[in-house]
Each structure stands twice: as structure tokens, then as C-alpha cells.
Amino acid sequence: MKPAVPAATRFLAGMLRTDVVPHLTDFRAGNAAMTAAMLDMLADEWDVAASRLHSENAALHALLGKCAAFLGEAGPAPLEQSDLRVSALTATNEVLRARIIDLHAAIEENEGGAALEDEIWAVLRDTMETRRVASANF
Amino acid sequence: MKTITEDLLSSYLAARFPDWSGVAASNLERLPMGASRETFRFDLAYTDADGAHRERVILRRDPPLSNVDSDRRHEYESYRAIYGQGIPVPRMILLEEDPAHFGGAISLAEDLRGFHNSEYQLQEPAWADRLPRIADEMWSTLGRLAAVPCENLDLSFMTHATPATTAMQELDHWEGQLDANDVGPEPIIRAVIRWLRRNPPPPAQKLAMVHGDYRAGNFLYDDAGKLIAVLDWEMAHMGDPLEDLAWSMARVFSFGKDDRRSGVAPREEAIRIWEAASGLTVDPHAMRWWELAMCVKGQAIWDSCVHAWSSVDEPTVIHAYAAWWLRNAQDRAALELMGKL
User: Closest chain B residue to A105 measured between Cα atoms?
Assistant: First the structure.
């Protein structure tokens, strides 16, 4: 799409803030201001969402393999990411994140799992950092 | 959702109060307050045996599905319980629980106009010199709330708690809310929950009426920074007063995007003010436990925003906005408290 989606959504967010919000009051002004903020978030997300999910899924899948090996369990099925739509990548991501919860809990109960636990926290930290929202308070 | 109009309000109040005459609601407007309830203000005129009256009124209505599991009666009774106990709150006027009248239960309260409640305004340079006063008012009021003896209050409508049970009761509740409003796996928050269960806090020093959502944005203040009234008591409950202190210092409410909690004062200063006003001391382990528990609570609420937005016929912008804006920040706050950031 031309103009590029991030540029267009940021433009629309700016228009809302400067041309619309000042003419509204109370509830409607709040809604319009939040809509502008969401357009800014969308602009940030648009270009990176698929890439981020694709990389994150690979990292989670590798981590699941390590966790399963440590626990003596069967490793995960091969990672299938040929469908690059964000919805498909998100569905895969949620399957992997759900499995990480189970294995993380099992490793916490396992003596000798400290190093692997550190790896789990590092991956979780990385996934959080790549999802940071520019306007967030923290 | 049924549209609330001035005519609807006038006819309802005239029927509800047959001793009143000339009942007229005017200047009705919806306010941009909160994600969990609809808030309106209007002017009310009526005449009774004492003569003519004009009142400014706040109306709160329960939506079909909220991001907070509470109801009109709970907040109404909470305000009534704390009213007159040294914590400034608006006076309650009326509770109507029959949804036939307005499409959802409503409550009416006095409208304290001419004051501020904006967490963003406090970040403006013009307010910088008043932040120490705001901090003192904010956390000393919370400390005084902690000091109010529970036995002086009618909290019979609340779930019973004891100093020994409140921590796990709250954790159970918010984990249940996460489960009920599941919007996808939460590996960070689930790990936090496991840690909280392995490392329980000591029993509460005392049982208190906990506000449940005490932060900048939920109290009115005047031009000098004096706190006028504490609002939004819908999540009030009996519990450990450290819970309110922990929530008030949540990173996701650091509106200055720095170390000042609620965008007002550093963590240590907030604790110092609170301790002086409450007469209680902050145990570091208990405080960390509650701060992490508040991460679970926060994420449960932001997830329920997604659930509410996805489940109702008329979604509201704030539910989608809050979820986008807060869910990852909540994970980050949890990682910091876990020492994993």
C-alpha cells in the first residue's frame, strides 16, 4: 500500500489530535485521543509484527527443545511457519507460549534446572522487550 | 445499551421521590472516567417541603460486561461505609439496581465540580512545584485509610477476610479472573503466580478497608494540590493495607515515565509518607509480594478489557486501548520485580 501504512496511520493520528480532539469535550475527546494513540501503536506494529513473531517462535521452539531434553520428554514437532500472516504466526506463538508455561513450571521443581530456568527468563524478557509500546509508562 | 436522557432521569426521579415536585435533570454529559463503568454528570432541580433545591449529580451505570467484576451495590455500599471516617469521599444519594429503568444498575452521588483528577495534568511543568504536596496528600490519605479500624465500618457486604487469609484470597481471585478472561498464554504472569504461592507473605499487620484502585487519576485535587475526594471504590474489599500501597506504586501507573510512582514521587518517599500516616511499617518481603501480586491483578484486568471488548455489542475504545497500552508494560513490571529484567 502506498503511502506506507505506518506513515499514513501516524498522519491520521496527528490529524485526530490537532483537528478533531480540540473540538470535542469529555467522553468523546477521550475516545478520539485514545484512538489517535492506538493508531500510533498500529503504525509501530504494522511493519514489525510478522518478523517479530517469526523470530520469537523460532526462539521459543528452540527453548522448548532444550526444556524437553532436560526433562527427558519428547521434543516439539518441527516448527512450521510457511504461513506468514500475523494471525497464523500468532496462533503458533500461543501454542509455543502455552507449552513454555508447562515446561517452566516443571523445571522450577527440578533440582539442577537453574541454568535452564535462566535461559527461559532470558527468552521471556527478550519477547517482552521486542513488544514494548513506545508510549507505555514502563 | 439504553440511552440515558434528561427526560428519562427527570421522570424516574419524580416517580422515585413522590414528595418532590418540579423535578428537572439538565446539562447531562458523559465523562471520560474509567474503563469499568459509564459515568455521567447532570444538574438536578426539584422542590420539596424544605423549598427549592439545585444539586450537581454524578451517575454511574454498570455496563452489560465490565472489565472489573463488581457491581453498583458494592461500590455504593463501599462509599457509604467509609463516608465520615476521615477519608474524603462524595456523598451517595441513590442506588437503583433494577436494570429496567436505565438498562443497567445505577448509582447517584454528589458531584464535586471545579477540581481535577487528571494523572496527565500532574506531568505538566506548571504542576511540578505542587507534586510534593500531591504526594503528601495522596499517600497520607492512603495511610489514614489503612489506619481506620475495620470494626468501625459496616463491611458486611464484602467477602470476609482475615490477616492470615487475605493474601491468598486475593491471589486466588485474580488468578481466577485471568482464567475466566483468558486471551492467550501469559508465561511471565503464570511464573509470577507460582513464585507467589511458593513464597507467601507474613500475615497482614492489620485488616483494613482496601480501596482497590488507589492511584493518580482516582482522586480529586484542587489548584493547590489538596486532595478533595477519593473516587472509584468499586474494587474495595477487606484486606492487607499493603495491597493498596503496592497498587499505588505500580510501574504501569508511572505517568511521568520515570521512577516516580503514579508520576508523583519516588517509591521510597511514598512509603515514608504512608508509614508516617498509617502508623504501620512496610516489611520488604511482604511489600515485594504485594507488588508482584498487583502485577497479576493488573494483567487480569487488562486481559478482561480484551474479553469485554470482544464480547459486547457496543465495544468501548478504552478497553482496546488499555489492553494494547498496558499488557506488555505489565509483563515488564513483573520482570523487574522478579529480578529478571
Answer: B191
